[in-house]
Task: structure prediction
Amino acid sequence: MNEERKSKHKISKIAAIICIVAFLLSAVSIFITYVMNKNAQSMYEHPYTVSNSARGMRSRLWDMKSFSSILITHAFDSKEDKDSFFQERYDMQNADIEIIDERYLGPVEDVDDLRAAMDGLIEAQTKACNYADNHSAYEIQEYMDNKVYPWYDRVSDSLTTIIDFADGKICSLNEQVQKSGITSMVFSLILAFSVIGLTILSNKQERKSIEELSRREHDLQDALYLAQQAGNAKKDFLSRMSHEIRTPMNVIVGMTTIAGANLDDKIRIKDCLSKIEFSSKHLLSLINDVLDMSKIEEGKISVNYEPFRLPQMFEAIIPAIYSQTSAKGTVFECKMTDVVSETVIGDSLRINQILLNLLSNAIKFTPAGGTICLTARQTPVKNRHTKLILIVEDTGIGMSEEFLHRLFTPFEQEDGTLSRKYSGTGLGMAITKNLTGLLGGSIHVKSKLGEGSTFTVELPLEVPEDAMEAKEYKLENLKILVVDDDVNTCTHASLLLKKMGIDADWVQHGSEAVQMVRKAHEAYCDYDVCLIDWKMPDMDGIEVTRRIREELGTDTLIIIISAYDWSDIKGEARKAGVNAFVAKPLFESSLYQALSSVISSDSDVKEESICSTPLLSGKRILLAEDNELNREIAVELLKETCAKIDCAENGKEAVERFTTSPSGYYNIILMDIQMPVMGGYEATRHIRSSNHADALNIPILAMTANAFREDEEEALASGMNGHIAKPIDVNLLYGTVSELIKKQHSLSSDKRRI
Result:
């Protein structure tokens, strides 16, 4: 009995000690939790808010920079409208500067520099607006490059400094929170085991409960591990998608800039818009893959084998690459040989992606003064199958033999300094190899450190049956001279002309060309057409043209061959006597078209008229859209149909406009989903439940970036009649709106007959 009492007393003592320890541990855990909450609150109130505001400023800054030259020359109704337009954006930026000034924990000088840079930008851009009133688009662009864009860069640099400091502060506070969390977890575990020990000592029958607790603990650890794995997968996926999305975006931004600099050249703008459309579709395909979560979970990327034309693909890529290399000061060359079929069957978007990745990589690692060369050719067709061989050579920094074995491993770079210098993620080559394998092709690389690299990609393609049919050409008895310093271009052009039934001569120097033309004239067998390269070492194409015109006058037709944007030299070339232009790389179809145009004396491109939708003419549309730029785009697209558009900036305003309108006033409502004050779903329900005569009949179409299937179902459930995902397909928009109005009209007619 005494032993039992001693044992019980001992157990009670231990239990009391455990209880005291448990109490202390609980107090410590509560304190640590308080510290964690305080750090989290501090993180939100200061660096997080500053970082968000600065990033918002930088995003708007980039948007302003991308469109500033276009907006400055935009035909506003008045100077006051233009000033008001820009002042709105300045006010938004200055509002964020005040937030940053209030919450920023870094040096005061950082905010002062930002404020000074923003004031300088506003002053410079105001002067640019005044300057634009009396100057050409080219002069405006030059003024923007020299006087305004440097201020954009200064504001961006100031924002980067603030963002870096704020992000660093966030990381520091996050580390503190993590340390506190770990400490809290340790104390919690000690507390848990203390309670378990007390339970064991007081009642051995609680073993089952303890085992259950242990099992749950293991489950939590497994869940934590899975969460960490999911976080790593998300980080890896987002990094990859960032790399893939930026590639076509570069084309879109570049072509937009070129279009803005050539506003008076409709043909050039049309060409830029065509290339923007091509890259936009590529970008949209990437976004669609992101939205299709089942493909992501299964690790699948869809491959679409469809007929496409090689000239279209290269015409979309080459100008963008040239603009990048020109800006960096590197030389870019493009060669095309042995093209047996311009139309092939394959996944053009994936091939475009592979080629852009290789060229972007070459540009990144090739310093100013270096050379980048793209060579493309096809193998002979066998059983309607061929291979497209793409070779990208550069004289850049190259790679070591050891690194070549790790080149296609994600996130790998030659050394750590490259990541900082070239801002790479190390994903480009891994993505390229995976896409190449997905298309059934192969990729090989040769490189030496300090001497450059050569990438060779072979991709299997199918040739359509109708592409194998022999083409008939109507160009006969032509005598043509090809002038290009590159022997491959000369031989390639000669082969293309031979396929058309034309025997051509070729030389590699401008002076030789002038001599050949002179000799032919003296022998009374003049050349009908001269194909002359624009850029040659001894004499450029324009100078050769002048010399030929001095010798022969205007009898010989002259076509300039160029891989570059010729808009800057077009006026000078026409003045020298150039009849037409043709782009490198040379394709059979483009060469034939150029020859046909000059032979028929019809070098002007006929513009296609935009077909409006007669059904929408005179119809009144209510557009609910909170984003100003999206609103502007929608209005401009709908104006092409001669419809009348009323705008609402949120769902509440849309409801008010509709409910106060007469019966039959609006023919359709286009409703965004995510809007302030009142969203699209709620606004639709308010409209359907109102006492307005058209409440139940008015067509309501969701026009939103919410593109999941469940979003479409929710739109229909709220009372909408249809759903269109952004970015807007113009033809789909016109067709859907027309169809809904037609149905509404038919329904109204039936009711009147009843």
About this structure: The CA atoms of residues 290 and 297 lie 11 Å apart.
